[in-house]
Design a protein that fits this description.
Blueprint: E1 10-19, E2 22-26, E3 31-35, E4 48-55, E5 61-64, E6 76-84, E7 88-91, E8 99-102, E9 119-126, E10 132-136, H1 139-145, E11 157-166, E12 169-174, E13 179-183, E14 196-204, E15 210-213, H2 218-235, E16 239-240, H3 248-255, H4 259-271, E17 275-278, E18 281-284
Parallel strand pairs: 13-15
Antiparallel strand pairs: 1-2, 1-4, 2-3, 4-5, 6-7, 6-9, 7-8, 9-10, 11-12, 11-14, 12-13, 14-15, 16-18, 17-18
Helix pairs in contact: 2-4
């Protein structure tokens, strides 16, 4: 079997000879160079060594003793190191060469492409020219590695990474290994593929998967909405032409809040004595004259 057939995998080879710039390894029929930069120890002739085979930037078969996070046929979480518009994203699998996940395997909208530092669950694929590319884990693969949630997990705070995204929602795998779905109504913005998100479990399905909300709990939302209102008031010297009688469309346009959320936050601010209303306007309490 040609060494090319082992590209993207680890294989045990023997040191055939040593040169100034590295070691020539052999399977008994073919040789491959293990450059000095690709090993952290000295080797001896006839020594057996386990290496990962890949094609370098010049199209040559190469070897490294670095242990990659994934190989062809195995899966793992790897970080994104760069996103290139129109091309795809490059991933660090633990060798000197970054691996491309092409645009055809990414969402149509580049706004939800992974950014540097995001994590993707991938394997490697080798094309007919023996070049290595990344391949995202399928939903079935995620299902196989996932753990079942129970009713005890309901309302639990969770965090994890997005492994699939679409207009109707996003799918994530939590740190506990739960496979979760985030409906579009349960997120303020669409998360990136590979982005780490935090939310809470709002439903546990019979198959052990969960529904997750990225929206803050009501008390947290109330705090955030109140801050939005106060910041706007302060930007207008403590007075604004909005009150709990304002039109829902006007509130949504100005604050990005529903009228019910606006009224709850405003009611809280009034109860706390921070604001008051008068003739359709709202004022900061300390600004009343």
């Amino acid at each position: 079997m040609s060494l090319n057939e082992y590209i993207g995998q680890t294989v045990e080879l023997t040191v055939a000879r040593i040169s100034d710039f590295g070691y020539f390894l052999t399977d008994g029929e073919e040789d491959v160079l293990l450059h000095n930069n690709e090993t952290d120890r000295e080797l001896q002739e006839e020594e057996k060594v386990i290496v990962f085979l890949y094609v370098d930037s010049k199209g040559r078969l190469a070897a490294t003793t670095s242990n990659p996070a994934v190989t062809a046929g195995t899966y793992g979480w790897v970080p994104v190191v760069e996103s290139v518009s129109g091309t795809g994203v490059f991933l660090d699998i633990g060798i000197s060469k970054d691996i491309l996940l092409g645009k055809d395997d990414l969402p149509v909208l580049e706004s939800v492409w992974p950014k540097k530092g995001d994590l993707l669950y991938i394997t490697l694929r080798v094309n007919r020219n023996y070049l290595i590319y990344a391949r995202l884990a399928s939903d079935q693969v995620i299902q196989e590695i996932s753990n079942h949630a129970t009713r005890k997990d309901f309302n639990k705070n969770v965090h994890g990474h997005i492994y699939r995204t679409a207009r109707v929602g996003s799918w994530m795998i939590t740190a506990e290994g739960y496979k979760g779905f985030i409906h579009e109504s349960q997120r303020k913005t669409e998360p990136r593929l590979g982005e780490k998100v935090e939310g809470r479990i709002i439903d546990v399905k019979e198959d052990g998967t969960v529904n997750i909300s990225l929206l803050p709990r009501k008390q947290e939302a109330l705090d955030e909405d109140a801050v939005v209102i106060m910041e706007y008031l302060e930007s207008r010297n403590g007075a604004m032409p909005y009150s709990d009688k304002s039109m829902a469309e006007d509130i949504s346009e100005r604050f990005g809040l529903s009228k019910s959320s606006f009224k709850r936050a405003l009611g809280r601010l009034m109860k706390e004595g921070k604001v008051y209303q008068e003739e359709g306007w709202t004022y900061k309490k300390e600004d009343k004259k």
